[in-house]
Amino acid sequence: xxxxxxxxxxxxxxxxxxxxxxxxxxxxxxxxxxxxxxxxxxxxxxxxxxxxxxxxxxxxxxxxxxxxxxxxxxxxxxxxxxxxxxxxxxxxxxxxxxxxxxxxxxxxxxxxxxxxxxxxxxxxxxxxxxxxxxxxxxxxxxxxxxxxxxxxxxxxxxxxxxxxxxxxxxxxxxxxxxxxxxxxxxxxxxxxxxxxxxxxxxxxxxxxxxxxxxxxxxxxxxxxxxxxxxxxxxxxxxxxxxxxxxxxxxxxxxxxxxxxxxxxxxxxxxxxxxxxxxxxxxxxxxxxxxxxxxxxxxxxxxxxxxxxxxxxxxxxxxxxxxxxxxxxxxxxxxxxxxxxxxxxxxxxxxxxxxxxxxxxxxxxxxxxxxxxxxxxxxxxxxxxxxxxxxxxxxxxxxxxxxxxxxxxxxxxxxxxxxxxxxxxxxxxxxxxxxxxxxxxxxxxxxxxxxxxxxxxxxxx
Length: 460
Ligand SMILES: Nc1nc2c(ncn2[C@@H]2O[C@H](COP(=O)(O)OP(=O)(O)OP(=O)(O)O)[C@@H](O)[C@H]2O)c(=O)[nH]1
Ligand SMILES: [Mg+2]
Hints:
The protein has 19 helices and six strands. It is of the alpha/beta class. α5 crosses α11. The N terminus is likely disordered. The site of guanosine-5'-triphosphate (GTP) has 26 residues, from α3, α15 and α17.
């Protein structure tokens, strides 16, 4: 028997027809498995303008469904936030002068101590105080961390109506017209300056003030430590009334949204061995370039979440991920109705988001794709509406100054009115940095997507 069977097997192995059939069957089975896997996998695409909070939403998913952040991420954010803290305080000093806000630290007769701290800070080159390799390399720092400073040394604010003129769906691909292949702006060669050049520029500008300074003993003449810089930032932040005024007007220039958090906690970020907490990482910012793919098991479903960089130069890459998307999660920064884009200071951020949402919602790619709209940064919005009239930027707005609810409804209606199809848009108000509230929002949203997906694939 055994002998007969093995002869049979040997015969089959020599039969080219049977062999090719077996290979075909194996391929077919594998395709079926892939198809089934694809069918079960939910693909969620995070879209929205730069800095709206997409990666922060992703971070919350990581905290909820992936056990949080690893050691390397915690070290990297510590360095990036430290660099941002230094640069952000320098920016406040420089912008105060541009806006004509008198700074206590510019006048040695008024406050000698602050004057010295200001000198010390401006003479410190951020890069000398950062562990560049932990932060992601100097190329990374050049591109991301020192980015805001570059603008102030090279570019004056352009007055504008704030309307994103000529924006349409083609903008998804055509916004890089002015840009080089590597995404840098060819109209602004100084944006490609090396870090040393940027720092030099900042320092030069910093020392070019109205008072002639003595070049004898000062804190800047001895070797500066990270603690010295942290102390200088802390003192300027707490005690210079001009810095406070300038910060209150930070919608008029580009400043990291979490700058106040960095300043409030600067002493811990000054520690070269500091390891970031979850909160630090949620408040920290590393601009996304390209599209990252992240897999999560949520309940019995497998989610693939795609996080795309939102700045204009990033959007040409979006189209590559438009196929097979289960739902689009569009993140809108509600609090940015009075701010201009980082990449084009003639364009109001809210207007840019409206145009972008319109282009995506009504594009052929997403004809049958559900949209979820996160009205994000609600914490900042609630605060801002009390002091910054929405009508100043949106003249047709009729609500009362300080009426957050009326403000939300107004913008919500604008976004809903863009819908040219019958597909529903699910709207949620969010504060992406708040883990407790995001836990509820994200579980409601993922449940809803799973249910919709099951219905669509005819399972329920
Ligand atoms: N206060 C507050 N800050 C937020 C909120 N959401 C995001 N942020 C902060 O906003 C900054 C930008 O957030 P990101 O998540 O990096 O923005 P993004 O949309 O991924 O930006 P790109 O990658 O450039 O497209 C970070 O410093 C976040 O901590 C929020 O709801 N409230
Ligand atoms: Mg991002």
